[in-house]
């Protein structure tokens, strides 16, 4: 598939105003990441690609035709990952703006962010960050941390009928 994309090169969340044009034959997100590594010297494992409201995770299976839109105003943002470090994270529960702050390590998993002190068991917590899609428990959070103080959005997953029956409700 012939790809032609405008892309912003970012360092963490800082846009240096470098907009580049990515052109070539690419089929998967993996092909796109390899192109970026070859042309812009950003190692594949150090890239966070953000496009049209979603993070393009590294894999050789996801086809670009499934994610690319024909709108020329949509720009790919290429972020570099943070080094392993402890980061202050803003937690917003059910879209209530106040929230609270906690410390999280960039090499930790999404499951590490889930805590029963939120008033819910971890399996009933849905976490999103910069993308619209919920994060999976096994994902490493540095794949999504592009800001100095990132915000995570925590939502309560309602109990299904079977869970309610086990609780006697």
What's this entry about, in short?
This protein is mainly β. The chain is 13% helix and 34% strand.
Strand and helix layout:
Elements: E1 2-11, E2 14-25, H1 29-40, E3 47-51, E4 54-55, E5 76-80, E6 86-93, E7 100-105, H2 110-113, E8 125-128, E9 151-156, H3 161-166
Parallel strand pairs: 1-5, 6-9
Antiparallel strand pairs: 1-2, 3-4, 3-5, 6-7, 8-9
Could you explain the architecture of this structure?
- Residues 28-84 form the Ubiquitin-like domain.
- This protein has 169 residues and is mainly beta.
- The protein has two domains: 2-80, Phosphatidylinositol 3-kinase Catalytic Subunit, Chain A, domain 1 (Ubiquitin-like (UB roll)), CATH 3.10.20.90; 86-160, Phosphatidylinositol 3-kinase Catalytic Subunit, Chain A, domain 1 (Ubiquitin-like (UB roll)), CATH 3.10.20.
- 13% of the residues lie in helices and 34% in strands.
- The chain has three helices and nine strands; from the N terminus they run E-E-H-E-E-E-E-E-H-E-E-H.
- The mean pLDDT is 83.
